[in-house]
Amino acid sequence: MFVSKNLEVNEKGHLTIAGNDAVSLAREYGTPVYVMDEELIRENCRKFSESFASYYDGNGMTLYASKAFSCKEIYRIVDQEGMGADVVSLGELYTALSAGFPAEKIYFHGNNKSREELEYALSHDIGCIVVDNLEELGQLDLLAGQMGKRPGIMFRIKPGIDAHTHDFIRTGQIDSKFGLALETGEAMTVLKRASAMEHLYLKGVHCHIGSQIFDLEPFKAAAEVMLRLIAQLKEETGIEVEQLNLGGGFGIKYTLEDQPVSYEKYMKEVSVTVNEVVRELGLNRPFILIEPGRSIVGPAGTTLYTVGAVKEIPGIRTYVSVDGGMTDNPRYALYQAKYDMALANKAGEEKNTVVTVAGKCCESGDLLGESIPLQRAEAGDVLAVFATGAYNYSMASRYNRTPVPPVVMVKDGESRLIVKRETLEDLTRNDL
Ligand code: LLP
What is the pTM of this model? Predict the structure, then answer.
């Protein structure tokens, strides 16, 4: 049993990923390597997009939250799937544009955008700037005036919803560095000020309540709170904004115990709330946006490593060390995130050991997981870690001067490189 449906075991007893023998992939591209399944990514994109057709009469759009995994090819894929993109830095914006992503379908986030970032966004006429604070609002209005532009903006609002997720990835509550607070009246004051600004066009409001959320209720509550805000703004200024962006955060299956809500169910139930509240408040239903990141790419990724040292400490634990670690996947070190794993060359065998999987960095906390059920490991085995498509490559570091691994895209038994492995020369390129 695997966490993702694209994973199977072939006649050699090897793991396959979208029809590709994982052991052969490891041999061909070297390890560590991130493997991404194109069909699964596209399928996830379509689940969201088709739900807009079913539940909002097509009056909405999915923005891919590219912080989850950003490289040129993913922007090409989501563009082909008819989606927009959420970017949160100059680097993501530059990557999207250099992949030919349509500027008008880009929403630019960030709680502390620099002048350089705002100028770049304005000069490329991107679709919408999601303004986080008053400081940014003033600066943007000034820059837009100087550059002769009138960009569309929306505001990031903290709806005051607690989504019961890990503290570091929870962002909708009042004590968060992101956005404007609703409870204090700050949001309304700033919205009113923005609606009167000459060089800015107030398009809508945005919220994002957290990440890896399994519960539907907080999403429904956030949608309701945001619609009430839209109604209040209409009442107090006569302006009815056109767009409501409900953010991302849909949980995925990392381990067999995880039971995420289907995207379809999320879209359906939230649409029921949206339609009811809109009717009650006498609003036009706004154009709805959502920003899934993890749920698009997370399940599509598998990281392959080669096992090196296996250290059995009698009565304590067995360390299985691999040729990557917190540099390519910092999520255990940061959040104690759990992953399912298997030895790709022994995938047909029983998992009859329980081990700690360690990386190769000079840091005791460099672990990929503890209490991991695994086939008996020995040097040379290929370890597969599943559901690593989101927030792994995008959060990779070069600690200990470790080059960032390559990304290989697989589809129908074929594979192709979409991001090359960093070289030692790449690591020293900027050193003077
Ligand atoms: N929109 C906004 C404004 C966000 O801040 C985020 C995530 C998303 C969309 C996408 O959320 P998703 O659908 O991927 O859950 N590094 C952490 C996750 C941080 C998420 C930050 N914001 C992790 O590895 O779990």
Answer: 0.96
